[in-house]
Design brief:
alpha/beta, 12 helices
Length: 406
């Protein structure tokens, strides 16, 4: 990706919007008989009926209290649990399945979307680094109802000069920035082509060579442009220096924990709280990138402890897995690891109300009348067993079923 490519993309009309509507035929969908958690902190409503019309929840209540429209598609949810649609705030559409997403047949795209995201309940995702020439058309096809998938938000990436991470093929051209002026221009270009935020590699992993960190002034320049447009900034910190850059540049979201830095310091935690920083733990990532069990467990333990510190400090926790970069689609392990630091309700909040509030999506995150009809039906109660969050029966986005277990 280069500046020339970005300008060419603009000329080709690749401008996109995060706003998603569906051109698919409208239908009324009713969920009947399940137990509903309207929000993570709510008591369950048993034997409930939810009516969804034109992409919005039009009624929620006890069976017998809600009239079911005669022409509705009714899904029996007896014995199941219903919650708001899940957000995955750290994904990548970089696998070969997404090449030529603008013109590829819809069926295999929907099939892979199910394997990767919708069968795990995701109705909204943040893509933190993919080719916008592929993904902006993909989200248009989702909005048009051609491909069954989640709402996609996009963040454009920047790397420090010379910071081409060892895990990215050397022939892939990356946007490396050497000056504040370059960072600001990249941010303007990304936002101009319809991306929804920025992601900074405040630390780049170089294998057996030292981490290359981004200068705080360079990071700050990108942040100022994004914030002037009301857009969030994510950061990938690799070590303590990268975390300090997140703080100095007023970055919004830590895209990972950073186990190599050890515990967060009291000063860091105070700054996170004052600046409203959010955290995406991505704990299961560390089980896939290191093959020595003792090292893996040490990294995971450090990440879990950072998550515990961050949450107890009052910080907003957002769920994310880095799926697309990693091939671990099953979310069970992430839930189990997060549960070492958080309660079941806190994990559910990281999937629903936390991102809806943090990203100012006021109509998402709850199962209530007037909210978007983004809903997940689970085979079991996640408050009694955290692993039930991964046992998805049906996923509904904007009132349309985008996944249903065979």
């Amino acid at each position: 990706m280069t500046g020339i490519w970005l300008r060419t993309a603009l000329l080709l009309g690749l401008l996109g919007s995060a706003a998603v509507s569906t051109a698919a035929d409208a239908e009324t969908v009713v969920l009947r008989g399940g137990s509903v958690y309207a929000s993570p902190d709510a008591a369950p409503l048993p034997d409930a009926v939810i009516v969804m019309t034109d992409g919005v929840i039009s009624a929620v209540g006890k069976s017998g209290d809600i009239q079911v429209p005669a022409d509705a598609r009714v899904i029996d949810c007896s014995g199941k649990t219903i919650v708001a649609g899940f957000w995955n705030s750290h994904v990548h559409f970089t696998e070969s399945a997404w090449r030529n997403a603008a013109t590829a047949p819809a069926a295999p795209l929907t099939e892979h979307m199910q394997e990767m995201l919708t069968r795990w309940g995701f109705t909204t995702v943040w893509d933190l680094g993919s080719d916008p020439a592929q993904i902006i058309p993909l989200r248009r096809r989702i909005a048009a109802g051609e491909v069954a998938g989640p709402t996609i938000m996009l963040a454009g990436n920047m790397f420090p000069k010379g910071g081409h991470p060892v895990y990215i093929p050397s022939d892939v051209k990356l946007p490396e920035v050497a000056t504040a002026e370059e960072a600001a221009q990249w941010a303007r270009d990304y936002l101009g082509m319809g991306e929804d935020g920025i992601k900074l590699f405040t630390g780049a992993f170089m294998g057996d060579k030292p981490v290359i960190n981004m200068d705080p002034a360079i990071a700050k320049a990108a942040v100022e442009v994004a914030h002037a447009h009301g857009k969030p900034v994510f950061a990938h910190p690799q070590n303590k220096t990268g975390v300090e850059t997140v703080i100095a540049a007023d970055v919004d979201i830590l895209a990972h924990t950073a186990p190599s830095q050890g515990d967060y310091t009291p000063e860091q935690l105070a700054r996170f709280k004052a600046q409203g920083t959010a955290l995406i733990p991505t704990l299961s990532l560390f089980t896939t990138v290191v093959l020595i069990p003792a090292v893996t467990e040490r990294l995971v333990a450090a990440g879990v402890n950072q998550l515990k510190q961050f949450s107890e400090n009052g910080g907003t926790v957002l769920f994310g897995t880095d799926v697309g970069f990693i091939k671990l689609y099953d979310t069970t392990r992430e839930y189990e690891l997060m549960h070492r630091a958080l309660s079941e309700r806190q994990v559910l909040a990281s999937l629903t109300t936390n991102p809806a509030r943090y990203f100012k999506a006021a109509a998402k995150g709850r199962v209530e009348k007037g909210f978007d009809a983004d809903i997940v039906v689970l085979d079991g109660d996640p408050i009694s067993d955290i692993r039930n969050l991964a046992k998805v029966s049906t996923t509904i986005r904007a009132g349309h079923v985008i996944y249903q277990k065979p």
